[in-house]
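in:
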């Protein structure tokens, strides 16, 4: 059988291929809200508000990123986790911002409120680019430590920052340092692809 090639046939095939390509791309298990895990990972800031990234890893199969940051003066550190939220074995695409139940801090508040020697308080930290984050501020009096745990949703994933600082120069200064780091980091991640 002889098949004639014509410009019309060729154009039809190209049109079909163009429509099939986005459908295939949207079935990619690592894409959430149009963003791949490794695209976020590759864009994680190496320096933020006086903190430098000291280690990091990514697992696209589990949609997770973990990074550790340390402050230049050595008195503060943070661990940042970005991960997909699952329900009934499927990835749930979160709406960006602090409103999803998945990024609430009730369990964090409960955990720290029950520890002796620690006082926990729910606070809202404003992101440098405008959004709010759900946070818990923890003061450990005997260790002179301030911990800030914040959560929000970015690119359909939950981002959680757990940062600690010695309160040597005062709790307010330590908390301000952690809030600045967290807000600038989340704003940087939000600006990625």
């Amino acid at each position: 059988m002889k098949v004639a090639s014509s410009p019309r046939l060729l154009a039809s095939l190209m049109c079909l291929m163009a429509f099939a390509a986005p459908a295939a791309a949207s079935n990619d298990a690592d894409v959430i809200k149009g963003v791949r895990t490794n695209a976020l990972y590759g864009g994680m800031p190496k320096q933020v508000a006086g903190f430098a990234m000291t280690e990091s890893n990514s697992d696209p199969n589990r949609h997770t990123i973990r990074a550790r940051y340390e402050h230049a003066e050595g008195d503060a550190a943070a661990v940042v986790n970005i991960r997909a939220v699952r329900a009934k074995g499927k990835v749930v695409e979160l709406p960006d911002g602090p409103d999803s139940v998945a990024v609430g801090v009730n369990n964090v508040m409960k955990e720290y409120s029950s520890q002796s020697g620690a006082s926990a308080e729910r606070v809202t930290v404003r992101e440098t680019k405008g959004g709010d984050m759900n946070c818990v501020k923890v003061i450990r009096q005997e260790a002179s430590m301030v911990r800030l745990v914040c959560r929000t949703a970015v690119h359909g994933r939950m981002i959680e920052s757990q940062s600690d600082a010695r309160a040597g120069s005062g709790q307010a200064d330590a908390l301000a340092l952690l809030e600045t780091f967290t807000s600038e980091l989340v704003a940087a991640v939000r600006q990625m692809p």
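note: The CA atoms of residues 87 and 93 lie 10 Å apart.
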